[in-house]
Design goal:
single chain
């Protein structure tokens, strides 16, 4: 085994990382872990993460992802409010599910968004991986919207898109971010199981006379 080449590869990986990416990755992991635990603190922590990634993705020419994280700033504020006051009587919101009609609308919007943004990026910008970037952006928007409304299906959406993101960010030499999204895959499973347990407990409470 050539230890010199391995050391050189590690140094090249580290040099490709930025302080913004490191901060974004660390706060991103903490934010998703807090979301899995249903802690409202997920939103202020996530605000820091998405702000950092606006800068990271601009430098990487992943403009759809840059715009996505800019949108996350607004959605995080919305989610923060909904989690605190979106329940009955303006109380803390409970875990719920996505309705069939809402799911169909979200899917239709996601497809239209992917095709429209992908065409624009492919023909009018120097963006890399235009349609892949647009598709992951569309699915992520759906996932973030579901999370803001505390709908359990958000974890399934994130699980699917995170698999793609690991490949994309490895390709773009964003190694910290690729590892980050691999960790997100694990947290998605943890979050789904935790939210499912909470949802089942709430249903049992409603059945109690």
């Amino acid at each position: 085994m050539d230890t010199t080449n391995i050391s050189q590869s590690i140094m090249e990986a580290l040099s490709a990382m930025s302080l913004y990416e490191l901060i974004g990755a660390l706060t991103g992991v903490v934010g998703v872990w807090l979301a899995a635990r249903q802690s409202v603190w997920t939103w202020p922590v996530s605000l820091v993460s998405v702000a950092m990634y606006v800068i990271v993705f601009y430098d990487a020419r992943l403009y759809a992802d840059m715009g996505l994280n800019a949108f996350y700033v607004v959605t995080s504020l919305y989610g923060w409010y909904v989690w605190l006051y979106g329940g009955k009587g303006h109380t803390e919101r409970k875990v719920g599910r996505v309705g069939k009609l809402e799911m169909l609308v979200l899917l239709a919007l996601g497809i239209a968004f992917t095709l429209g943004l992908g065409y624009f990026l492919e023909n009018y910008t120097d963006a890399d991986l235009s349609y892949t970037d647009s598709a992951t952006t569309a699915v992520s928007l759906i996932g973030y919207w579901m999370m803001a409304k505390k709908q359990i299906e958000n974890w399934i959406v994130w699980l699917v898109v995170d698999v793609v993101y690991v490949g994309v960010y490895t390709y773009k030499d964003l190694y910290i971010t690729a590892v980050l999204y691999f960790i997100f895959l694990i947290l998605c499973v943890v979050g789904y199981l935790d939210w499912k347990k909470s949802l089942e407990e709430d249903k049992k409470m409603q059945l109690v006379p």
